[in-house]
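Researcher: I'm preparing a figure for a lab meeting and need a structural model of a single chain. I don't have an experimental structure, so a prediction will have to do for now. The sequence is pasted below. Please return the structure as tokens so I can convert it later.
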Amino acid sequence: MKAYDKYKEDLEKRYPQVCATCAPRVRQQIKNSAYVAKTDHLRRMVEKTRTGGGDSRRRGGWRAAVIRLGAVGWAFANCTQILWHALEILEQGERTFGLVELGNSASFLRSPLALKIRGIASTNDFEGLHASTSRMMPWALLAGVLASWWNPWMHKKYLGSGGTMVGLGNYYRSQLISLTVRAGAWWILTYPFTNGFSYEELLRANAFMMVFMTLVSFLETLLM
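Model: Understood. Here is the structure written out token by token.
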């Protein structure tokens, strides 16, 4: 409070009062300055849009290559596991529908759907594709772990219009949960008979995982 008078004097020197005669001109000058600032901002936004949201240096180089490599690893991991579960469903379905002991399901065993599943799963092409996909599954899980740092917002931030990424903590926590579930499901369903699962239980488990993987992949794709 002792320095109040001095502070007020300094404040009035830095920001002198405007008289009634000068006030309209001052307001007009402020309005003109605001218009110039808005026009300059609009020009910068138009230029950024024309260049695809960033200059050529930001859209190229090692950073772009690493981000795209992460996206490829993410896509390979998800698509391979979805395909593997789909093939497992066909195989377990063929075994389930091929059991005579099902009794009251005998009418379904003669249905077009059951016959189609058994026909597809008994071909050599299916067996070869199933075996190849099973061999790729460990690599797909490894690719999922190595690409876990990647997220869909990186394309927008570093290769697009820029901005700030928010909610990364929740995203990476969900990634950790998803990878744990995927790895656990693959391990259990790859060695089913040590757990005493029936063909029907394996069929349901693989169907659940395929729906889970498809839903997670679809939701993450929406963020791209």
